[in-house]
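User: My collaborator sent over this chain with a note saying "see what the structure looks like." That's all I know about it. Can you take a look?
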Amino acid sequence: MVSHDKLEQSVLHILFILLCVVAVAPFILLIASSLTEESTLMTYGYSFFPRKFSIYAYEYLFRSSGKIIRGLGISFLVTFVGTFCAVLMTVLFAYPLSRKELPARNFFSFVIFFTMLFNGGLVPTYMMYTQVFHIKNTLWALIIPSLLMNAFYVIMMRSFFTSNIPDSLVEAARIDGAGEYRILFQVVMPLSKPMIATISLMIGLGYWNDWMNSLYYITEENLYSLQAILNNIINSITFLQSSSQSGASSALASMPSTGIRMAIAVVGVVPILCIYPFFQKYFVKGIVVGGVKG
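Assistant: Without extra context I'll predict from the sequence alone. Here is the result:
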């Protein structure tokens, strides 16, 4: 007779296997659709097994491979630099807010919370970044606007510091002669790796998927990120197909727009899927279990 524990464990295994299938199935369908001939997609719809195999969507996408590779390099650079700077600024802002002895602590908390409710609008923001900070057509235009400081992440980090970093641990470090920066970088941050990794992943995804800053602040094609290039390809295909509806060009009308969209999604998501396992180990680590002097 099967014991209750074994039965419960089997049910949990089946449940998690089903959850894994639900999570992985859309990616398999995405890849299969990108490798299916356009006419087959239009006739039979999406399928996990391509009825008629075709790599034309990828051939069309990488026809200008130099542009794609350059955009990929810019996206990696912007994502790495932007994530590092954003996480550093988030930690430097959140840690003082978590300390009760900070003068005007409530005022600074209100300032960061206020930015979650109100903003100056697109036109004043554009004028400030282009006419005051002069970041137009620079890589800083892909790093600073909208993404460098996010109030939500600051509040998350502050809450983590408040609830998971014991005051007695900070006081013990001060008694040992550590200053505020040493306490932050050598005591607090090593104990905050799970939260820092989580925020880093979310900020990195924001930078990787961003194409709006390229649209607003970049006019030189050699500074386009990968997402901006892929977005321009989609817009170009849509324009060409709308122009060919009159029947002037059957070649344009038969362009694999659906397959190309799927291929673009694959190209955009694969690098993140490759990087994610390196962050996974931080999510399974335990939160602080001690460290307080007896």
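A starting point for your reply to your collaborator: Residues 286-294 have pLDDT under 50 and may be disordered.
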